[in-house]
Each structure stands twice: as C-alpha cells, then as structure tokens.
Amino acid sequence: MAPPSSPSISDANSPAVDASALDELRNTPWREWSNEQWELWRNQVHRLATERNAVILAHNYQLPEIQDAAHHVGDSLGLSRIAADTDADEVIFCGVHFMAETAKILSPDKRVLIPDAAAGCSLADTITAEDLRAWKDEHPGAVVVSYVNTTAEVKALTDICCTSSNAVDVVESIPADQEVLFCPDQFLGAHVQRSTGRENMHIWMGECHVHADISPTDLTDTVRSHPEADLYVHPECGCTTSALWMADSGEFPRDRTHILSTGAMLDQAKKNSRNTVLVATEVGMLHQLRKARPDTEFLAVNPEAACPFMQMITPDKLLRSLEEGRDEVDVPTDVADAARRSVEAMIAIGTPGGGE
Questions:
Q1: Are 164 and 138 in contact (CB under 8 A)?
Q2: DSSP-based three-state secondary structure for 34
Q3: In the list 155, 214, 234, 354, which could disulfide-bond 339, CB 3.0-4.6 Å?
Q4: Element (DSSP H or E) covering residue 112
Q5: 14 pLDDT band (50/70/90 cuts)?
Q6: Quick one: average pLDDT of 127-144?
Q7: DSSP 177
Q8: Helix or strand or coil: residue 278?
Q9: Integer Cα distance of 170 and 145 in angstroms
Q10: Quick one: average pLDDT of 297-323?
Q11: How far apart are CA 320 and CA 347, in angstroms?
C-alpha cells in the first residue's frame, strides 16, 4: 500500500511507541504496510533520528518513501557538504557506499551509517586504486580528474575531483599543454572532451550500467512521440551524443535540449514552462521533479532505468540502521586526508557543483 503524505520531518514530538505494533511492523514486508504502519514507521524514524542526533540524507535516486523521510534530498557531494555543516553526531546516508564514504571524508568526526553496506555502484566499481596507479604510471605528469562517483581510495590518488555539473570547468582549469586522465565515466568524459575540444585527455572506459542502458533508441523513440516536450539528459547516459545530434540536426530544438546534472535538472524544472518534460536519468529523480513542478508531466526516457543498488536502501533497513546503529562506514585517516584534498582542489576552482 502506498504511504499517505508524511508529516514534517522536523516534528520530533512523536507519540509513544506501541511495542507490539512495532514488532508487527518489523515482521511485515514493507511493501505490505498499512497506512497506520507507514505512520508508525515515520514517527519511529524521526524519533530515533532525534535521539541519536542524526541527520538523514537521501540521494535523488532513492525510493520516494526514503526521500520523503529524509532531512535533506539531493546529489551526493551536496548532501555530504550539508552534513559537514550540521551539528549532528551521526549521518545516515541513504545512497550507495561511495556516497557514505564521501560524507565520512568531509565529516571525519561524525559517525556515518548506511542502511545497507552492500549497496555498491557499478560505475565506482569500474576503476580501483590499483587500476589508477597503473594508469598514472603510463602517463607520468598527467593530472587525474575523477568524478565523485568513485571510491575513497581512488579519490585519494586523484588531483582534482569533479561533478557532472562542473566537470567542464575543472578540466578547463588545467593548463592546455598538460595531459589529463579522466575517470571513470566514459560518457561524462566524452561530454567534457566534446565541450572543451581537448585532445590530450584520456578517458577511462567505465560506465553506470543504468545510465548506459538509456539508449539512443530509447531517446529517439520517446522524443519523436513527444515533439512538444523539453528534454533533460544526464551526461552519464549512453544517449547523450544522440541527444546533441538530434539538436544539431534540427530534429529536436536545441533550446529544449538540456544536458544536466540531477541538481541542475531540479533548477531547470523550476523555470520550466512546458507541459511535458522527458527525463533521461535514473527514474528515482522523477519524484523530486514532480514535487518541484506538480503542474508538469515528467516522463522517463527509459521507465526501466532503476538502479538496483539504490533500491537496496529500503524503509525497513533505514529503521534498522537507526535502531541498531548499523552499518557504519569508515575511511582510514590517511586515505580520507588525501581524498579530501582532491575535493578541496575542486572547490577551490570556484564551481563546486553538487554531485552527480
């Protein structure tokens, strides 16, 4: 049963807990919860967060129920920076593992939990610290630019991190005669190379399997079915080149084709004047877009583009994490310090972006 509208997350005055009702909640699959059980779940989540002095963060690709229960929803880096500025003792990161690592890197004195430590990332897994060391050895003196969707160990070997919204600015900040190693997303790398015209840029051939599967065919079919719509495309998508080709060829208006990070999609949606917007990214993003502009129809270019790792963070696991203090994410101090420097180098450029 779908949960009814939730009360304000700031309401810490939850009613007394009925132990038997809570036991029944834990023993019922979350997709079968009644309206009363959803209400109990929300009250318990908010109460425990207050007791633990914890801030709950939810990535834009999380399940709608998780997003609605969080204190903050957004991109991974933006959320990690918000957490660092709070006086919370604990950070509950509803996202994938590298995101919780980033929160720990920026908040070394806070305890960081993720509701399921097995929630990985197919993109982050495409390059390891050993891979990057070997690549650097092949290109001595090159500047390493790593997307934030990487592990702490990879960030620690990186010169400058980037987000999808500032990757072009980051690469343009590097002297033109210096080699650049860009990792790990090949589609974001191709977008940056196309935008900068940089020839001495080497791109790691990694990909997010969800975004890569939003294909050129998905895009062209959807666009041709909705010629009046605006189009938002995330630069991790395998269809980005096709979107730009359609715009350049005149098949779809260039001024209605937008290559955007998830945060920029929200900004664009708030300015949108179209009745329909086609969205090429993970489908969890539609929830925030629809909340931002309920008068607009947001349609997924590929309705099957759901990240199984993001969906591992379920309401019952969030409750368990708050009840039991699990699963904690730690980053060794030397790794965290080196990784933090790569993030700070990005921020120093002046266009810190938000995240994916």
A1: no
A2: coil
A3: 155
A4: strand 111-113
A5: low
A6: 98
A7: T
A8: strand
A9: 8
A10: 97
A11: 35
Query: What residues are paired with 111 via a beta bridge?
Result: 90
When pLDDT is cut at 50, 70 and 90, the band that residue 353 belongs to is low
What φ, ψ does residue 310 adopt, rounded to 5°?
-60, -40
Q: Which residue has the higher pLDDT, 205 or 350?
A: 205
Average pLDDT in the chain: 93
Cβ neighbours of residue 59 closer than 8 Å, sequence gap 6 or more: 73, 74, 75, 76, 79, 94, 95, 96, 99, 284, 310
Residue 3: its pLDDT value, please? 44
CATH of 210-300, one of 3.40.50.10800, 3.10.20.600, 3.40.50.720, 2.60.40.60: 3.40.50.10800
CA-based nearest residue to 37, from 310, 311, 316, 321: 316
Q: Which CATH number fits domain 124-207+334-349: 1.20.120.1770, 3.40.50.2300, 3.40.190.10, 3.40.50.10800?
A: 3.40.50.10800
Q: In sequence order, what DSSP letters do the residues of 314-335 get, joined into one string?
A: -HHHHHHHHHHT--EE---HHH
| Cα–Cα distance for residue pair 343/283, rounded to 1 Å | 28
Both structure tokens of 10: 């700031």
The domain ranges of the chain are 19-120+309-329, 124-207+334-349, 210-300
Structure tokens at 175: 């002297």
For residue 195, give both structure tokens: 């935008």
Query: DSSP string of 196-242?
Result: H--SSEEE--B--HHHHTS-HHHHHHHHHH-TTSEEEE-TTSTTHHH
How long a stretch of residues is the chain?
356
Residue 154 and residue 233 in contact, taking contact as beta carbons nearer than 8 Å: no
